[in-house]
Amino acid sequence: MTIQMRHCVRAAQRGDKIAAEELIKAFKPYLHHQAKKYQRFYQNFDEALSTAYHGAIDCIYQYDLSQSETVTEMMVASVHNHLRRESYSRTCYYQRVEKTIMENDTLTDLPEDLISPNACPERCYLEDEVRTQLYWALEQLPELQQTFIRLHFIHGYSYQQIAKKYNLQKSTICGYIKRGLRNLKILLEADGEAS
């Protein structure tokens, strides 16, 4: 079995996905056992299992075929180390968060890295509102202004590319986009005053 595993590792390292899948399949019971063992450090079993699989994949691609340790020994060590390292860092992180939130029975500020700015519900709501208003105003523009603005600002076309696509002068495209932006500003200001 050891020689067969070494051949599978060699094939996987050369890009054979089926060989990698066979190796993972051979260690699947062990990976599940280890994930259950470390599950308490994760939000759910799937996260722990994902870390175990990550350790297995790392072992496959970093295994040195000239070393004396067997594939099984290296796999066990790699999976164990990944889960141990990840659970330790999660424990430290949650202790830091807990300490920051509650100190001396008083609520303190949350750590800055707890929620990314993009995940803030209020920010997401406001960005969605702005996006909705912008698309509404864009729909109110004449067809060519709307088309050229979409091509330039949303799809990243240059004025030259748009001009070539529509057989127009670059200055004509520039004029349509400037008028469209001016009209957008007027529509958005009017909508803001109406709200």
- Give the uncertain stretches in residue-range form: none
Major beta sheet summary: 2 strands, antiparallel
Helical fraction: over 70%
The number of distinct structural domains comes to: 2
- Beta fraction of the residues? under 5%
Q: What is the average per-residue confidence, as pLDDT, rounded to a whole number?
A: 80
Keywords: DNA-binding, Sigma factor, Transcription, Transcription regulation
Pfam families: HTH_16, Sigma70_r4
Protein name: Sigma-70 family RNA polymerase sigma factor
Domain RNA polymerase sigma-70 region: 137-185
If you had to describe this structure to a student in words, what would you say it looks like?
- By secondary structure, this protein is mainly alpha-helical.
- The N and C termini lie far apart (72 Å).
- The longest helix has 31 residues, at 71-101.
- It folds into two domains: 2-103; 117-194, Orthogonal Bundle (Arc Repressor Mutant, subunit A), CATH 1.10.10.
- Helix 3 (28-38) crosses helix 4 (45-62), helix 3 packs parallel to helix 5 and helix 4 packs across helix 5.
- The radius of gyration is 28 Å and the shape is elongated.
- Strand 1 (102-103) and strand 2 (106-107) form a beta hairpin.
- It has helices at residues 2-13, 17-26, 28-38, 45-62, 71-101, 121-140, 143-154, 159-166, 170-194; strands spanning 102-103, 106-107.
- Strands 1-2 form a two-stranded antiparallel ribbon.
- This is Sigma-70 family RNA polymerase sigma factor.
- It holds the Pfam family HTH_16.
